[in-house]
C-alpha cells in the first residue's frame, strides 16, 4: 500500500486523528471516535471501521463484540487535514453502546433562551436494543 | 443562567470539548471545532456558534470576519458527555475558510481496495466564493 495519503493526515501529539462517523442515506451523525495510523490503514484496506480506543489503549474493530460493524462508503479529510469524516452503513442501525441509533441522543432544551429557565440535557432517542442483549 | 448542564459536559485536560457542526435540513457535516466553557455558554445564550480557537488561543465568533455565522437550532451531547453536536443554519451556505460549503471536501479514492493502486485525497467540492472576496 502506498503511504502518501497517510502522510497527508496531520496526526496529533498522540499520533491520533478525530473521526466523525455519519450514516449513508440518512446523513445522521452516529458517533465520534479516534484513529491512529494503523486503524486508518486497516479501515481503508478492509472497508470496515477500525478505531483506536483511548480508554482501552488498543485497536477496536467496531462491531467486534456487538456485531454492529460499519461498512465504509466514503472517507473524507477536512481543510486542515486533521479531522476525518467516515460515511458508513451501520449494521443493525445501532452505533451506540447504549443500544441507540446514534450516540448523540441527549438534547439541550431551550437553546437560545437559557438565561432564566431551567436548562438541561434530555434523552430524546429510544433504546432499540438493550445493551445486555447486545453484549452477552 | 443555571450551570448544571455545563457541569454535565466532560471537559478535557485543556478544558475543551470537541464540536461537530451539522447543517439543518441537508444534514451535511460542515466543520469540526472546539469549545471551552465560555464558548458553550455564549453559544447557548446567543443562539449563534462561538468556538475556542486553539491556534489563536481566543474565542472565535463564527462569521465575525466572513459574515458566515451559524444560527444554532439544536445542541446535542453524546453518550460519554464529551462530544457536542451542533445543528445549524449556515449563513451564505459556506462554512469553510476556503470558500467551500463544508470543510470535508477531500475524498479518499478507492476506499476498500487501496492495496495496490495509487490512492490519495482528491478535492471534490467547488469553491463557492474566493477567500479574498470573503476576507477583505
Characterize the biggest β-sheet of chain A: 4 strands, mixed
**Percentage of residues in DSSP E strands of chain A:** 25-35%
Q: Give the fraction of residues assigned to helices of chain A.
A: 10-25%
Overall structural class of chain A, as computed from helix and strand content, comes to alpha+beta
The low-pLDDT segments of chain A are: none
Q: Count the strands of chain A?
A: 8
Main attributes?
homodimer, 136 residues, alpha+beta, 4-stranded mixed β-sheet, two-stranded antiparallel ribbon, 3 helices, 13% helix, globular
What can be said about this structure in brief?
The structure is a homodimer of 136-residue chains. By secondary structure, chain A is an alpha+beta fold.
Describe, in plain words, how this protein is organized in 3D.
The structure is a homodimer of 136-residue chains. The first copy, chain A, is an alpha+beta fold and 136 residues long. In chain A, 13% of the residues lie in helices and 32% in strands. Chain A has three helices and eight strands; from the N terminus they run αββαββββββα. Chain A has helices at residues 4-7, 37-46, 131-134, and strands at 17-23, 29-35, 50-53, 58-61, 70-77, 84-90, 106-108, 121-123. In chain A, strands 2-1-6-5 form a four-stranded mixed beta sheet, covered by helices on one side. In chain A, strands 3-4 form a two-stranded antiparallel ribbon. In chain A, strands 7-8 form a two-stranded antiparallel sheet. In chain A, β3 and β4 form a beta hairpin. The mean pLDDT of chain A is 94. β7 (106-108) of chain A pairs antiparallel with β5 of chain B.
Amino acid at each position: 500500500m502506498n503511504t502518501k495519503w497517510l502522510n497527508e493526515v496531520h496526526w496529533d501529539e498522540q499520533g491520533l486523528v478525530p473521526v466523525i462517523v455519519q450514516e449513508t442515506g440518512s446523513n445522521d451523525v452516529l458517533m465520534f471516535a479516534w484513529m491512529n495510523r494503523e486503524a486508518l490503514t486497516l479501515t481503508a484496506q478492509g472497508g470496515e471501521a477500525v478505531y483506536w480506543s483511548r480508554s482501552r489503549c488498543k485497536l477496536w474493530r467496531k462491531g467486534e463484540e456487538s456485531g454492529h460493524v460499519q461498512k465504509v462508503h466514503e472517507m473524507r479529510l477536512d481543510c486542515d487535514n486533521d479531522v476525518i469524516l467516515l460515511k458508513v452503513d451501520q449494521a443493525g442501525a445501532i452505533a451506540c453502546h447504549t443500544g441507540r441509533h446514534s450516540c448523540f441522543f441527549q438534547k439541550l432544551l431551550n437553546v437560545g433562551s437559557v438565561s432564566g429557565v431551567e436548562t438541561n440535557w434530555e434523552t430524546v432517542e429510544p433504546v432499540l436494543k438493550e445493551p445486555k442483549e447486545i453484549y452477552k
